[in-house]
C-alpha cells in the first residue's frame, strides 16, 4: 500500500502537470517530464497516479475555482451564472486543454474513468440543481429528466468553447439560453 502523498509533493506534481499541458498539450505529457519538472520521483508519481491521463485529470480537478450553485430565483439567471463560470474556466488555455483531454480520453483504466466521472459530476451538479429548482418553481415541466436537461444545456457551450474554440460572450450565452429554455418547455 502506498504511503500518503505529501501536500507539497502533490502540489508540485499538479503544478508541473499544468505547466507541461500549457507548453506541449496533454497528449505529449509524460511521467518522466512531470518528475523532472516537479522534483518528485517517478516511482512516487506512479504509486499515486496510474498514468499521465490520471495526472491531467487530477490537475484539472484540483483547480481551485469550483462551480457554485446559484439560486437567483430564476432559471435563466441561474444558467447565465453557471455558464459564465464555465466560460471563465474554459478561457484559460491550460484548463481548456485539460478539459478537452478529459472529454476525449478513452481508457480501460478504472481509476482514470472514476476520476473523469467525478470531475464530470462536479461540473454538472450546478446544472441539475438549477433544473430541479426550476421544476419546483414551475418554470420547467415537472416530468423533465434533469440529467438529460443538464446534458442539453451543457452541450452547446462545450461544443462552441472547447471543441470549436469559439469565444462565447454574454450575448451569445443569453441567445443560447433562450433557445434552450424554449426547447425544454420553459416558461
Walk me through this protein's architecture:
By secondary structure, the protein is mainly alpha-helical. The chain folds into 2 domains: 7-61, Arc Repressor Mutant, subunit A (Orthogonal Bundle); 75-183, Tetracycline Repressor, domain 2, CATH 1.10.357. It has 9 helices and no strands. The chain has helices at residues 7-24, 31-38, 42-48, 52-61, 75-91, 93-104, 110-137, 146-163, 170-183. The longest helix has 28 residues, at 110-137.
Layout of strands and helices, then pairs:
Layout: H1 7-24, H2 31-38, H3 42-48, H4 52-61, H5 75-91, H6 93-104, H7 110-137, H8 146-163, H9 170-183
Helix pairs in contact: 1-2, 1-4, 1-6, 4-6, 4-7, 5-7, 5-8, 5-9, 7-8, 8-9
List keywords for this structure.
9 helices, 187 residues, Tetracycline Repressor, domain 2, 71% helix, Arc Repressor Mutant, subunit A, single chain, mainly alpha
Summarize the structure.
The chain has 187 residues and is mainly α. It is built from 9 helices and no strands.
Poorly predicted tracts of residues = none
Whole-number total of structural domains: 2
CATH topology of the largest domain: Tetracycline Repressor, domain 2
Structural shape: elongated
Please state the CA-atom Rg, rounded to the nearest Å. 19 Å
User: What is the helical fraction, as a range of percent?
Assistant: over 70%
Name given to the CATH architecture of the largest domain: Orthogonal Bundle
* Tally of helical runs: 9
Order of helices and strands: HHHHHHHHH
Separation of termini?
55 Å
Number of strands: 0
Mean pLDDT: 85
**What is the highest CATH level, the class of the largest domain?**
Mainly Alpha
| Major pleated sheet | none
Class derived from helix and strand content: mainly alpha
User: Strand-residue fraction?
Assistant: under 5%
Amino acid at each position: 500500500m502506498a504511503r500518503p502523498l505529501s501536500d507539497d509533493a502533490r502540489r508540485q506534481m499538479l503544478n508541473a502537470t499544468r505547466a507541461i499541458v500549457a507548453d506541449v498539450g496533454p497528449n505529449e505529457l509524460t511521467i518522466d517530464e512531470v518528475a523532472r519538472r516537479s522534483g518528485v520521483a517517478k516511482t512516487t508519481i506512479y504509486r499515486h497516479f496510474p498514468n499521465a491521463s490520471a495526472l491531467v485529470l487530477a490537475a484539472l480537478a484540483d483547480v481551485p475555482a469550483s462551480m457554485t450553485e446559484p439560486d437567483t430565483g430564476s432559471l435563466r439567471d441561474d444558467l447565465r451564472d453557471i455558464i459564465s463560470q464555465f466560460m471563465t474556466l474554459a478561457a484559460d488555455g491550460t484548463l481548456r486543454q485539460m478539459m478537452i483531454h478529459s472529454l476525449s480520453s478513452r481508457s480501460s483504466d478504472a481509476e482514470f474513468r472514476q476520476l473523469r466521472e467525478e470531475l464530470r459530476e462536479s461540473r454538472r451538479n450546478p446544472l441539475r440543481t438549477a433544473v430541479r429548482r426550476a421544476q419546483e418553481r414551475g418554470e420547467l415541466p415537472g416530468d423533465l429528466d434533469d440529467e438529460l436537461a443538464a446534458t442539453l444545456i451543457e452541450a452547446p457551450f462545450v461544443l462552441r468553447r472547447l471543441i470549436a474554440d469559439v469565444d462565447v460572450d454574454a450575448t451569445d450565452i443569453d441567445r443560447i439560453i433562450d433557445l434552450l429554455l424554449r426547447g425544454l418547455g420553459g416558461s
